[in-house]
Amino acid sequence: MDGIFDIIFNIDTYLSMVAHDYGRYAYMIIFITIFCETGLVITPFLPGDSLVFLTGVLSAKGDLNLWAAFFIIPIAAVIGDNVNYQIGRLLRHKIARNEEIFFIKKDHFERTHKFFEKHGGKAIIIARFIPIIRTFTPFVSGVAEMPYIKFLLYSIVGAFIWVTTFIFTGYFLGEIPFFLEYFNFVIIGIIIISFIPIFILILKKLLSKKNYKGKD
User: Fold this and answer.
1) What is the per-residue pLDDT across 55-64, written as a single tens digit (0 to 9) for each?
2) CB 54 within 8 A of CB 11
3) Cα 17 to Cα 10, 11, 35, 83, 118, distances in angstroms
4) Which of 130, 136, 150, 174 pairs as cysteine with 112 (C-beta 3.0–4.6 A)?
5) 11: left (phi over 0), alpha (psi -120 to 50) or beta
């Protein structure tokens, strides 16, 4: 457990060391992490927002190439989306029959499904900024049999908006000495802020259940 916290609090140091000592392998780590977080339903816990933000900061410090990262990350996100979409299409009949799928948390799926029904195709773009929801949205799109071209367009637009927002914010802030002094706390803050929409959704669900029981 101490090792995990050490990595979280010093993630900039670790990735900076990888970038400095192994060069292109840092981009490989970033690509695989973003792909897995977006493309595999079983890995919604992987860092997304904070990793893209960190990539921008390290680019400002000269440890990574900004434009190489800006090119690689959206590709990883879009490929991940497409894999997840196809998984959703393959499993749609099981979902329709309410069969249990061991690697899918029903609660996460239901929350994402409601989010998708509310926002439609725009959910793919909005979900980019919400951890867990962004992992399940492509899957739900596949289950709902959204036309592939429509899904792909939303996926590409969402990926570039998401990456542009976080990588350039990190890049510009990474040039400010005061910011770098408290960088680890900023990363933790981003992780917490990213999960606020999830907490709100959970709170709403709990309150609605409480109100429903109160009426009984």
Assistant:
1) 998 898 888 9
2) yes
3) 11, 10, 22, 31, 43
4) 136
5) alpha
* Cα 28 from Cα 89, distance rounded (Å): 28
Within 10 A of 132 (CB to CB), how many other CB atoms are there? Answer: 21
Which residues make Cβ contacts (< 8 Å) with residue 106, sequence separation at least 6? Answer: 100
Residue owning tokens 């400002």: 60
Task: Please report the DSSP string for the chain in residue order.
Answer: -HHHHHHHHTHHHHHHHHHHHHTHHHHHHHHHHHHHHHH-TT-TTS--HHHHHHHHHHHHTTSS-HHHHHHHHHHHHHHHHHHHHHHHHHHHHHHHTT---TTS-HHHHHHHHHHHHHHTTHHHHHGGGSTTHHHHHHHHHHHTT--HHHHHHHHHHHHHHHHHHHHHHHHHHTT-HHHHHTHHHHHHHHHHHHHHHHHHHHHHHHHHHHHHHHH-
The pLDDT confidence band at residue 201, using thresholds 50, 70 and 90, is: low
Residues in the chain: 216
Across 67-76, 123-132, 203-212, which has the greatest mean pLDDT?
67-76
Domain extent listing, the chain: 2-215
Tens-place pLDDT, residues 77-133: 999 999 999 998 888 777 666 655 655 666 656 666 677 777 777 888 988 888 888
Maximum distance among all Cα pairs of the chain, rounded to whole angstroms: 63
Q: Which amino acid is residue 32, in one-letter code?
A: I
